[in-house]
């Protein structure tokens, strides 16, 4: 991740506050960095989708000004707005959190995995074949 001057300013401001008061708002600094990653991811995904801020605003029911402010990191983001943005960009929420969450560890105890593991070999082969067929026809 590349830090902007504003990111550095925010971090330095937290550090100065700590030096003056002895109190460190670590959570606020961490949250700022997390938000910064999310804002950058939204912008990257929007440009990869070939959307202008105006088109994304239209798809989400938000204003273009809001999208601009959001991508510059000058606005917060509610969960419903995050979901609307994901729908508009045609991505799942994991795409927005790339760089924030560690997706390398996939839980094996979720419902889909448990159901798949409970199938007999013939059914498991059939599901695997169908998934491969769907994936390969989308290319």
Structure description:
There is one protein chain. The chain has 139 residues and is an all-alpha fold. The protein has 8 helices and no strands. Helix 3 packs across helix 4.
The overall strand count is 0
What structural class should be given to the helix and strand makeup? Answer: mainly alpha
User: What integer value in Å does the Rg equal?
Assistant: 20 Å
**Helical residue percent?**
55-70%
Give the termini distance in whole angstroms. 30 Å
Count of alpha and pi helical runs: 8
Q: What is the averaged pLDDT score?
A: 79
The SSE string, one letter per element, is HHHHHHHH
The biggest sheet amounts to: none
Low-confidence stretches: none
In short:
The chain contains eight helices and no strands. It has 139 residues and is an all-alpha fold. α1 (5-21) runs antiparallel to α2 (26-48) and α3 (53-60) crosses α4 (64-71).
Notable traits:
single chain; about 140 residues; mainly alpha; 8 helices
Question: Topology, please?
Answer:
Layout: H1 5-21, H2 26-48, H3 53-60, H4 64-71, H5 79-89, H6 93-96, H7 111-118, H8 121-137
């Amino acid at each position: 991740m590349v830090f902007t001057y504003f990111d550095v300013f925010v971090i330095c401001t937290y550090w100065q506050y700590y030096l003056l008061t002895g109190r460190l708002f670590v959570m606020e600094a961490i949250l700022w960095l997390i938000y910064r990653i999310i804002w950058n991811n939204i912008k990257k995904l929007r440009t990869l989708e070939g959307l202008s801020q105006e088109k994304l605003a239209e798809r989400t029911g938000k204003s273009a000004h809001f999208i601009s402010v959001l991508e510059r990191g000058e606005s917060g983001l509610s969960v419903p707005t995050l979901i609307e943005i994901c729908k508009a960009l045609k991505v799942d929420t994991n795409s927005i959190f790339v760089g924030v969450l560690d997706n390398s560890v996939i839980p094996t105890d979720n419902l889909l995995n448990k159901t798949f593991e409970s199938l007999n070999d013939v059914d498991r082969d059939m599901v695997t074949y169908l998934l491969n067929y769907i994936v390969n026809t989308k290319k």
